[in-house]
Amino acid sequence: MARRPRVLLPGIPLHIIQRGNNLSACFYSDEDYIFYIDALAVLAQLYGCKIHALCLMTNHVHLLLTPTCYAGAGLLMQGLGQRYVQYVNRTYQRTGTLWEGRFRSCLVQQENYVLACYRYIEMNPVRAGMVTHPGDYRWTSYRANAQGELSGFISPHAVYSELGSGTAQRAEAYRSIFKDRLPSVLIEQIRSSTNGNYVLGDQKFASEIAEILGKRVSPGASGRPKSVS
């Protein structure tokens, strides 16, 4: 079966997952995480991608970003994957593939879903039982977004910026949304949309994106969407 074309649009947030091949580990030491983050920062600037949230787990990666050009996200992930694989193979004297293949992604509706994606990404280590609080895990953007830790490349999305008038106020408001768990239905929606390369949002958002791209962006019958009269 042919792979579905990616659903990408400049200026629309994108949730990305990239997994290790056969769920194998991708990171083996602190230096590996640091190398990946440094490369991400450089390539995000090069390809015009604003990074809003991230989480580097042992065997997979989550990113929430907004590309400023159509090809930006693809070029970023291609370059990042190549640089990191070369680094790992050189460092650990190994050969062969590291990643599962193509990264998975979904366009994210700003209203009601962007902050949910932030939380989904930064709560990964808690759901995995690695820590009890997201701030206890070093390799996410939580400390930048919720605790004001300086970051050279985390760029707040407009929805995040609307949480308050200053850094401290925004961070406090952001921390407050972590008091409640994400509903399991929403977690499953984020996962299925990302794994299926669909859009994450309501039906109106899906219809608008389908009309712009002229192709299916949610599960259902294939074919070009009908014109709206």
From TrEMBL:
Gene3D superfamilies, per database record: Transposase IS200-like
Q: Which residues form the Transposase IS200-like domain?
A: 9-124
- Family annotation (SMART domains): Y1_Tnp (SM01321)
Pfam short name (any one): Y1_Tnp
Which superkingdom is the protein from?
Answer: Bacteria
Name of the protein described by the UniProt record: Transposase
Q: Which organism is it from?
A: Pseudomonas synxantha
Lineage of the source organism? Bacteria, Pseudomonadati, Pseudomonadota, Gammaproteobacteria, Pseudomonadales
